[in-house]
Amino acid sequence: MAPSAVEVETPVVPDISALKLQALSGPYKELAATKFDADAEAGLKGHKAAKHPAYLPTWDRNEKYAPLEPFEHTEHGKDADLSFPNLLPQGVASVVDLTPTIGTEVRGVQLSTLSNAGKNELARFVAQRKVVAFRDQDFAELSIEKALEYGSYFGRHHIHPTSGAPAGFPEIHVVHRGAGDDSVDRYFANRTSSVAWHSDVSYEQQPPGTTFLYILDKPETGGDTLFVDAVEAYNRLSPAFQQRLHGLKATHSAVEQANASLSRGGIKRREPVINEHPIIRTHPATGEKAIYVNPQFTRDIVGLKKEESDAILKFLYDHLGFGGDFQARVKWQEGTVVVWDNRVTQHSALVDWKNGQRRHLARITPQAERPFETPFEG
Ligand SMILES: O=C(O)CCC(=O)C(=O)O
Ligand SMILES: [Fe+2]
Protein backbone atom coordinates (compact mmCIF):
# COMPACT_ATOMS: atom_id res chain seq x y z
CA MET A 1 0.00 0.00 0.00
CA ALA A 2 1.24 3.49 -0.71
CA PRO A 3 2.53 4.84 2.59
CA SER A 4 0.41 7.56 4.14
CA ALA A 5 3.42 9.73 4.87
CA VAL A 6 6.62 8.50 3.37
CA GLU A 7 9.07 10.98 4.57
CA VAL A 8 10.28 9.99 8.00
CA GLU A 9 9.60 7.79 10.93
CA THR A 10 9.59 10.82 13.15
CA PRO A 11 8.44 14.08 11.60
CA VAL A 12 11.79 15.75 12.03
CA VAL A 13 13.45 18.07 9.56
CA PRO A 14 17.23 18.26 9.79
CA ASP A 15 18.01 21.43 11.71
CA ILE A 16 20.93 22.92 9.88
CA SER A 17 21.79 25.20 12.80
CA ALA A 18 23.15 22.11 14.50
CA LEU A 19 24.25 20.29 11.36
CA LYS A 20 27.97 20.39 10.73
CA LEU A 21 28.11 22.25 7.43
CA GLN A 22 31.83 21.70 7.21
CA ALA A 23 31.18 17.96 7.03
CA LEU A 24 29.18 18.48 3.86
CA SER A 25 30.53 18.87 0.38
CA GLY A 26 29.52 19.62 -3.22
CA PRO A 27 25.88 19.96 -4.17
CA TYR A 28 24.91 18.69 -0.76
CA LYS A 29 26.52 21.65 0.90
CA GLU A 30 24.83 24.03 -1.50
CA LEU A 31 21.45 22.46 -0.93
CA ALA A 32 21.88 22.63 2.80
CA ALA A 33 23.09 26.20 2.66
CA THR A 34 20.27 27.44 0.44
CA LYS A 35 17.48 25.40 1.92
CA PHE A 36 18.13 25.80 5.60
CA ASP A 37 20.11 28.97 6.20
CA ALA A 38 17.02 30.91 7.16
CA ASP A 39 16.21 28.30 9.81
CA ALA A 40 19.73 28.42 11.13
CA GLU A 41 19.54 32.16 11.41
CA ALA A 42 16.23 32.04 13.26
CA GLY A 43 17.44 29.24 15.49
CA LEU A 44 20.45 31.21 16.55
CA LYS A 45 18.60 34.43 17.18
CA GLY A 46 15.24 33.41 18.48
CA HIS A 47 15.68 30.90 21.24
CA LYS A 48 17.31 30.14 24.53
CA ALA A 49 20.33 27.90 24.39
CA ALA A 50 19.84 24.13 24.39
CA LYS A 51 19.75 22.63 27.90
CA HIS A 52 21.66 19.59 26.68
CA PRO A 53 23.99 20.78 23.90
CA ALA A 54 25.89 17.45 23.91
CA TYR A 55 22.68 15.91 22.58
CA LEU A 56 22.13 18.34 19.69
CA PRO A 57 21.73 16.43 16.44
CA THR A 58 24.43 16.26 13.79
CA TRP A 59 24.34 14.52 10.43
CA ASP A 60 27.72 13.37 9.21
CA ARG A 61 27.58 12.70 5.51
CA ASN A 62 30.78 10.68 5.55
CA GLU A 63 29.47 8.16 8.05
CA LYS A 64 28.64 4.91 6.24
CA TYR A 65 27.80 1.50 7.67
CA ALA A 66 27.70 -2.01 6.23
CA PRO A 67 24.38 -3.89 6.23
CA LEU A 68 23.29 -5.06 9.69
CA GLU A 69 24.29 -8.64 10.50
CA PRO A 70 21.92 -11.02 12.29
CA PHE A 71 22.64 -11.47 15.99
CA GLU A 72 21.29 -13.64 18.80
CA HIS A 73 18.91 -11.62 20.98
CA THR A 74 18.50 -12.48 24.67
CA GLU A 75 15.01 -11.66 25.92
CA HIS A 76 15.57 -10.63 29.53
CA GLY A 77 11.84 -10.20 30.11
CA LYS A 78 11.65 -14.01 30.24
CA ASP A 79 13.86 -14.09 33.35
CA ALA A 80 11.86 -11.57 35.37
CA ASP A 81 10.29 -12.11 38.78
CA LEU A 82 6.66 -11.34 37.99
CA SER A 83 6.06 -9.64 41.32
CA PHE A 84 8.66 -7.02 40.24
CA PRO A 85 10.37 -6.70 43.66
CA ASN A 86 13.40 -4.85 42.28
CA LEU A 87 11.65 -2.59 39.79
CA LEU A 88 8.59 -1.70 41.86
CA PRO A 89 9.45 -2.20 45.55
CA GLN A 90 6.38 -2.06 47.75
CA GLY A 91 5.98 1.18 49.64
CA VAL A 92 8.59 2.88 47.43
CA ALA A 93 7.21 2.84 43.91
CA SER A 94 4.01 4.64 43.01
CA VAL A 95 2.36 2.85 40.07
CA VAL A 96 -0.66 4.31 38.29
CA ASP A 97 -2.18 2.73 35.21
CA LEU A 98 -3.18 5.25 32.53
CA THR A 99 -5.71 2.92 30.88
CA PRO A 100 -6.73 -0.70 31.54
CA THR A 101 -4.49 -2.30 28.92
CA ILE A 102 -1.80 0.22 27.96
CA GLY A 103 0.27 2.79 29.80
CA THR A 104 1.54 3.12 33.35
CA GLU A 105 3.11 6.02 35.21
CA VAL A 106 5.77 5.16 37.79
CA ARG A 107 7.32 7.42 40.43
CA GLY A 108 9.75 6.78 43.23
CA VAL A 109 12.24 4.51 41.44
CA GLN A 110 15.43 5.49 39.65
CA LEU A 111 15.97 3.44 36.49
CA SER A 112 19.69 4.18 36.38
CA THR A 113 20.25 2.30 39.67
CA LEU A 114 18.50 -0.96 38.70
CA SER A 115 20.38 -4.23 39.13
CA ASN A 116 20.24 -6.76 36.30
CA ALA A 117 17.31 -8.43 38.08
CA GLY A 118 15.59 -5.03 38.05
CA LYS A 119 16.33 -4.60 34.35
CA ASN A 120 14.82 -8.02 33.61
CA GLU A 121 11.70 -6.88 35.45
CA LEU A 122 11.72 -3.62 33.50
CA ALA A 123 11.75 -5.49 30.18
CA ARG A 124 8.86 -7.70 31.35
CA PHE A 125 6.80 -4.94 32.97
CA VAL A 126 7.08 -2.80 29.85
CA ALA A 127 6.12 -5.77 27.64
CA GLN A 128 3.00 -6.25 29.80
CA ARG A 129 2.02 -2.58 30.11
CA LYS A 130 3.25 -1.71 26.57
CA VAL A 131 4.46 1.79 27.55
CA VAL A 132 5.59 3.09 30.93
CA ALA A 133 6.44 6.70 31.85
CA PHE A 134 9.04 6.89 34.61
CA ARG A 135 9.02 10.33 36.22
CA ASP A 136 11.85 12.26 37.91
CA GLN A 137 14.68 10.28 36.35
CA ASP A 138 18.36 11.26 36.21
CA PHE A 139 18.85 9.67 32.79
CA ALA A 140 19.40 12.93 30.92
CA GLU A 141 22.12 13.87 33.42
CA LEU A 142 24.13 10.68 32.86
CA SER A 143 26.96 10.84 30.34
CA ILE A 144 25.92 9.62 26.90
CA GLU A 145 28.38 6.72 27.33
CA LYS A 146 26.65 5.64 30.56
CA ALA A 147 23.18 5.91 29.03
CA LEU A 148 24.31 3.71 26.12
CA GLU A 149 25.96 1.20 28.44
CA TYR A 150 22.68 0.94 30.33
CA GLY A 151 20.65 0.45 27.16
CA SER A 152 23.00 -2.20 25.79
CA TYR A 153 21.69 -4.67 28.40
CA PHE A 154 18.44 -4.90 26.42
CA GLY A 155 19.92 -5.65 22.99
CA ARG A 156 22.33 -4.49 20.32
CA HIS A 157 22.04 -0.74 19.74
CA HIS A 158 20.39 0.19 16.49
CA ILE A 159 22.10 2.87 14.43
CA HIS A 160 19.44 4.76 12.52
CA PRO A 161 20.00 5.09 8.78
CA THR A 162 18.93 8.74 8.53
CA SER A 163 18.26 10.47 11.84
CA GLY A 164 20.35 13.06 13.65
CA ALA A 165 22.70 11.88 16.39
CA PRO A 166 24.92 13.57 18.96
CA ALA A 167 28.41 14.04 17.52
CA GLY A 168 30.29 10.76 17.98
CA PHE A 169 27.24 8.75 19.18
CA PRO A 170 25.36 7.39 16.16
CA GLU A 171 23.55 4.90 18.45
CA ILE A 172 21.48 7.76 19.89
CA HIS A 173 18.48 8.80 17.81
CA VAL A 174 17.78 12.49 18.43
CA VAL A 175 14.38 14.14 18.13
CA HIS A 176 14.85 17.92 17.97
CA ARG A 177 12.62 20.59 16.59
CA GLY A 178 11.52 24.14 16.93
CA ALA A 179 14.42 25.97 18.52
CA GLY A 180 13.40 29.53 17.79
CA ASP A 181 12.28 28.80 14.26
CA ASP A 182 8.92 28.50 12.53
CA SER A 183 9.19 24.75 11.96
CA VAL A 184 5.97 23.89 13.80
CA ASP A 185 3.89 26.24 11.64
CA ARG A 186 5.84 25.15 8.59
CA TYR A 187 5.01 21.53 9.36
CA PHE A 188 1.31 22.23 8.81
CA ALA A 189 1.78 24.24 5.62
CA ASN A 190 0.91 21.16 3.59
CA ARG A 191 -0.49 18.77 6.20
CA THR A 192 -3.62 18.69 8.33
CA SER A 193 -2.23 16.54 11.16
CA SER A 194 1.07 15.36 12.57
CA VAL A 195 -0.25 11.94 13.59
CA ALA A 196 2.01 9.35 11.97
CA TRP A 197 1.59 5.94 13.62
CA HIS A 198 4.56 3.63 13.37
CA SER A 199 6.61 0.97 15.04
CA ASP A 200 10.24 2.07 14.91
CA VAL A 201 12.37 0.85 12.00
CA SER A 202 10.12 -2.16 11.40
CA TYR A 203 11.96 -2.67 8.11
CA GLU A 204 14.97 -4.14 9.92
CA GLN A 205 15.28 -7.91 10.04
CA GLN A 206 15.49 -7.63 13.86
CA PRO A 207 13.50 -4.54 14.80
CA PRO A 208 13.79 -2.94 18.26
CA GLY A 209 12.16 -4.29 21.43
CA THR A 210 12.47 -2.48 24.78
CA THR A 211 12.98 1.14 23.69
CA PHE A 212 13.88 4.23 25.76
CA LEU A 213 12.96 7.83 24.96
CA TYR A 214 13.95 10.59 27.38
CA ILE A 215 13.19 14.26 27.41
CA LEU A 216 15.98 16.84 27.30
CA ASP A 217 14.02 20.02 26.70
CA LYS A 218 10.29 20.48 26.27
CA PRO A 219 7.80 23.06 25.10
CA GLU A 220 5.52 24.62 27.74
CA THR A 221 2.67 22.39 26.63
CA GLY A 222 2.02 20.08 23.70
CA GLY A 223 4.40 17.64 22.06
CA ASP A 224 2.80 14.66 23.84
CA THR A 225 3.39 11.19 22.41
CA LEU A 226 0.56 8.79 21.49
CA PHE A 227 0.81 5.01 21.90
CA VAL A 228 -1.47 2.23 20.70
CA ASP A 229 -1.67 -1.28 22.15
CA ALA A 230 -1.26 -3.63 19.18
CA VAL A 231 -2.10 -6.67 21.37
CA GLU A 232 -5.47 -5.31 22.42
CA ALA A 233 -6.02 -4.27 18.79
CA TYR A 234 -5.49 -7.93 17.82
CA ASN A 235 -7.77 -9.14 20.63
CA ARG A 236 -10.61 -6.91 19.41
CA LEU A 237 -10.74 -8.65 16.03
CA SER A 238 -13.19 -11.50 15.40
CA PRO A 239 -11.67 -14.99 15.61
CA ALA A 240 -12.48 -15.44 11.92
CA PHE A 241 -10.52 -12.35 10.93
CA GLN A 242 -7.65 -13.13 13.32
CA GLN A 243 -7.41 -16.55 11.71
CA ARG A 244 -7.31 -15.04 8.22
CA LEU A 245 -4.37 -12.78 9.23
CA HIS A 246 -2.33 -15.63 10.70
CA GLY A 247 0.19 -17.01 8.25
CA LEU A 248 0.33 -13.81 6.22
CA LYS A 249 3.51 -11.77 5.90
CA ALA A 250 3.96 -8.16 4.87
CA THR A 251 6.92 -6.27 3.42
CA HIS A 252 8.46 -3.39 5.40
CA SER A 253 10.63 -0.93 3.50
CA ALA A 254 13.37 1.54 4.46
CA VAL A 255 13.63 2.84 0.90
CA GLU A 256 11.20 5.75 1.09
CA GLN A 257 12.69 7.02 4.35
CA ALA A 258 16.19 7.00 2.87
CA ASN A 259 15.04 8.73 -0.33
CA ALA A 260 13.12 11.35 1.63
CA SER A 261 16.19 12.01 3.75
CA LEU A 262 18.41 12.48 0.69
CA SER A 263 15.86 14.68 -1.06
CA ARG A 264 15.81 17.15 1.82
CA GLY A 265 19.57 17.27 2.14
CA GLY A 266 19.88 14.60 4.82
CA ILE A 267 22.02 11.49 5.06
CA LYS A 268 21.91 7.74 4.36
CA ARG A 269 24.15 5.83 6.75
CA ARG A 270 23.26 2.40 5.33
CA GLU A 271 21.71 1.10 2.15
CA PRO A 272 17.96 0.73 2.73
CA VAL A 273 16.55 -2.75 3.29
CA ILE A 274 13.18 -4.42 2.73
CA ASN A 275 12.16 -7.30 5.02
CA GLU A 276 9.11 -9.51 5.35
CA HIS A 277 7.53 -10.00 8.78
CA PRO A 278 4.44 -11.88 9.96
CA ILE A 279 1.37 -9.64 10.20
CA ILE A 280 0.64 -11.14 13.61
CA ARG A 281 3.76 -11.51 15.75
CA THR A 282 4.14 -13.13 19.15
CA HIS A 283 5.98 -11.52 22.02
CA PRO A 284 8.76 -13.85 23.22
CA ALA A 285 8.25 -13.17 26.95
CA THR A 286 4.49 -12.71 27.34
CA GLY A 287 3.35 -14.94 24.46
CA GLU A 288 0.88 -12.21 23.49
CA LYS A 289 0.00 -11.73 19.83
CA ALA A 290 0.12 -8.28 18.25
CA ILE A 291 -0.73 -6.71 14.90
CA TYR A 292 2.59 -5.83 13.28
CA VAL A 293 1.92 -3.62 10.27
CA ASN A 294 2.23 0.17 10.27
CA PRO A 295 1.50 2.89 7.73
CA GLN A 296 5.02 4.34 7.73
CA PHE A 297 6.98 1.27 6.70
CA THR A 298 4.67 -1.59 5.68
CA ARG A 299 4.10 -1.78 1.94
CA ASP A 300 2.16 -4.89 0.93
CA ILE A 301 0.90 -8.25 2.03
CA VAL A 302 2.88 -11.02 0.40
CA GLY A 303 0.86 -13.18 -2.00
CA LEU A 304 -2.21 -10.93 -2.22
CA LYS A 305 -3.20 -8.77 -5.17
CA LYS A 306 -2.69 -5.04 -4.76
CA GLU A 307 -6.33 -4.13 -4.10
CA GLU A 308 -6.70 -6.96 -1.60
CA SER A 309 -3.52 -6.00 0.21
CA ASP A 310 -4.40 -2.27 0.24
CA ALA A 311 -7.88 -2.94 1.63
CA ILE A 312 -6.68 -5.15 4.49
CA LEU A 313 -3.79 -2.84 5.40
CA LYS A 314 -6.10 0.19 5.35
CA PHE A 315 -8.52 -1.59 7.66
CA LEU A 316 -5.70 -2.48 10.08
CA TYR A 317 -4.24 1.06 10.06
CA ASP A 318 -7.68 2.57 10.68
CA HIS A 319 -8.37 0.04 13.43
CA LEU A 320 -5.09 0.93 15.21
CA GLY A 321 -5.28 4.67 14.53
CA PHE A 322 -8.88 5.19 15.62
CA GLY A 323 -8.69 2.84 18.60
CA GLY A 324 -8.88 5.50 21.28
CA ASP A 325 -10.08 2.76 23.65
CA PHE A 326 -6.73 0.96 23.42
CA GLN A 327 -4.41 3.96 23.23
CA ALA A 328 -2.52 6.02 25.81
CA ARG A 329 -1.14 9.55 25.63
CA VAL A 330 2.05 10.40 27.48
CA LYS A 331 2.59 13.97 28.66
CA TRP A 332 6.26 14.75 29.05
CA GLN A 333 7.60 16.33 32.23
CA GLU A 334 11.15 17.30 32.97
CA GLY A 335 13.00 14.10 33.94
CA THR A 336 10.57 11.71 32.21
CA VAL A 337 11.91 8.53 30.62
CA VAL A 338 9.36 6.66 28.56
CA VAL A 339 10.02 2.99 27.91
CA TRP A 340 7.91 1.09 25.40
CA ASP A 341 7.96 -2.30 23.79
CA ASN A 342 8.23 -1.61 20.09
CA ARG A 343 7.08 -5.16 19.22
CA VAL A 344 3.58 -4.74 20.64
CA THR A 345 2.89 -1.00 20.25
CA GLN A 346 2.92 1.80 17.73
CA HIS A 347 3.39 5.46 18.53
CA SER A 348 3.19 8.94 17.09
CA ALA A 349 4.73 12.24 18.07
CA LEU A 350 2.43 15.29 18.06
CA VAL A 351 3.77 18.51 16.58
CA ASP A 352 1.22 20.78 18.24
CA TRP A 353 3.18 23.11 20.49
CA LYS A 354 3.75 26.82 20.19
CA ASN A 355 6.04 27.74 17.35
CA GLY A 356 9.56 28.58 18.38
CA GLN A 357 9.84 26.41 21.51
CA ARG A 358 12.42 23.67 21.60
CA ARG A 359 11.40 20.01 21.87
CA HIS A 360 14.43 17.78 22.33
CA LEU A 361 14.52 14.06 23.14
CA ALA A 362 16.95 11.17 22.82
CA ARG A 363 16.10 7.58 21.99
CA ILE A 364 18.02 4.43 22.85
CA THR A 365 16.89 1.65 20.56
CA PRO A 366 18.07 -1.89 21.40
CA GLN A 367 17.22 -4.38 18.66
CA ALA A 368 15.41 -7.59 19.52
CA GLU A 369 14.55 -10.93 17.89
CA ARG A 370 13.42 -11.46 14.34
CA PRO A 371 9.59 -11.28 14.46
CA PHE A 372 7.97 -14.71 14.61
CA GLU A 373 4.43 -15.97 14.87
CA THR A 374 2.77 -18.75 16.79
CA PRO A 375 -0.41 -20.51 15.61
CA PHE A 376 -3.90 -19.08 15.92
CA GLU A 377 -5.49 -20.28 19.14
CA GLY A 378 -9.10 -19.26 18.65
O1 LIG B 1 8.94 12.63 19.38
C1 LIG B 1 8.26 11.73 19.84
O2 LIG B 1 7.40 11.91 20.71
C2 LIG B 1 8.41 10.34 19.34
C3 LIG B 1 9.35 10.31 18.21
C4 LIG B 1 9.50 8.93 17.67
O3 LIG B 1 8.72 8.46 16.90
C5 LIG B 1 10.63 8.15 18.14
O4 LIG B 1 11.52 8.67 18.81
O5 LIG B 1 10.66 6.95 17.84
FE1 LIG C 1 9.26 6.42 16.54
Topology:
Layout: H1 26-46, E1 94-97, E2 104-107, H2 116-129, E3 131-134, H3 144-151, E4 172-177, H4 183-187, E5 210-217, E6 225-229, H5 230-235, H6 239-245, E7 249-253, H7 255-263, E8 274-278, E9 280-282, E10 289-291, E11 298-301, H8 306-321, E12 327-330, E13 337-341, E14 345-349, E15 359-364
Parallel strand pairs: 2-3
Antiparallel strand pairs: 1-2, 3-13, 4-15, 5-13, 5-15, 6-12, 6-14, 7-8, 7-11, 9-10
Bound molecules: 2-oxoglutaric acid and fe (ii) ion.
2-oxoglutaric acid is lined by residues 9-10, 175, 200, 213, 225, 347, 349, 361, 363.
Structural account:
The chain has 378 residues and is of the alpha+beta class. The chain has a single domain (62-364), classed as Double-stranded beta-helix (4-Layer Sandwich). 23% of the residues lie in helices and 19% in strands. It contains eight helices and 15 strands. The chain has helices spanning 26-46, 116-129, 144-151, 183-187, 230-235, 239-245, 255-263, 306-321; strands at residues 94-97, 104-107, 131-134, 172-177, 210-217, 225-229, 249-253, 274-278, 280-282, 289-291, 298-301, 327-330, 337-341, 345-349, 359-364. The strands form four sheets. It has a seven-stranded mixed β-sheet. The longest helix is centred in the first third of the chain and has 21 residues, at 26-46. It is globular. The relative contact order is 0.23. The chain binds 2-oxoglutaric acid (AKG) and fe (ii) ion. Fe (ii) ion binds next to loops. One of its GO terms (cellular component) is cytoplasm. GO terms for molecular function: 2-oxoglutarate-dependent dioxygenase activity; metal ion binding.
